[in-house]
Amino acid sequence: MWLAEDHQPIQKKGNGWVVHVSNFISETIRRIKLSEDQVAEQLTLPAELHLPAFEAQKIIYPGKGFDEWWNLPQLVKQLKHTIKVFGHTQLDSVVIFVFDRSSAHEGFVEDALNVNNMNMGHGGKQRKLHNKVVPPSNPEGAPSKEGTCGWVQKICFPDDHPNLALRGKVKGIKNILEECKSIWDKYTTTCMERGMML
Fold first, then answer.
1. Fewer CB in a 10 Å sphere around the end CB: N or C, the chain?
2. What is the spatial distance between Cα 42 and Cα 37, in angstroms, rounded to a whole number?
3. Residue ranges per domain, the chain?
4. DSSP 36-78
5. Can you give the pTM of this predicted structure?
């Protein structure tokens, strides 16, 4: 093509190919991976006995018709492999993982107790979350009420609940707070003082 000296050729745009690399770097061994000797040793073992991966690095090619975009389940799977590889290379070390992937900071398992996955009232389309243990830091109950610290709180109504309409249904935020009497009293008092309704 004919161009003036200070002009750049305009390349035709295409679909291209995205390459995504996720890796973990250690202060002690740099990239977390087995040495060539360790890989050779692993390959002498039956497939069911050797590590599922020999390095932490994961490369995918996301996009239409290729791999799915990087997400939390893939990161969790990579992390599980990484822990095994690190444990094989650093037998007497403790590892602390630091993430710079901001979207992973808000990652939760599907049944995590996350208020964003709950309705205000019971039932509905909310998913069944796992039961919780009320932490020791929970406020103590009022003098006439029993405290809930250390109590296992069920997130679903029992199948033998006296109210037939509630049996097996998922509790909502309001139900959960009402069961934690000291918390419920504290927040309903605060809401009433502010003129709010629950």
1. N
2. 9
3. 20-104, 115-193
4. HHHHHHHHTS-TTTS-S-SBS-EEE-BSTTSBPPP-HHHHHHH
5. 0.52
Q: If you count them, how many residues does the chain have?
A: 198
Cα distance between residue 178 and residue 52, in whole Å? 47
42 contacts 87 by C-beta, under 8 angstroms: no
How many angstroms separate the CA atoms of 75 and 87, rounded? Answer: 18
Share of the chain above pLDDT 90, in %: 11
Distance CA 140, CA 114 (A): 23
Tell me the one-letter amino acid at 149.
Answer: C
Confidence check: pLDDT of 15 > 80? no
Q: What's 136's DSSP letter? A: T
58 with 19: CB under 8 angstroms? no
The token pair at 125 is 């389309």
Q: How far apart are CA 87 and CA 21, in angstroms?
A: 22
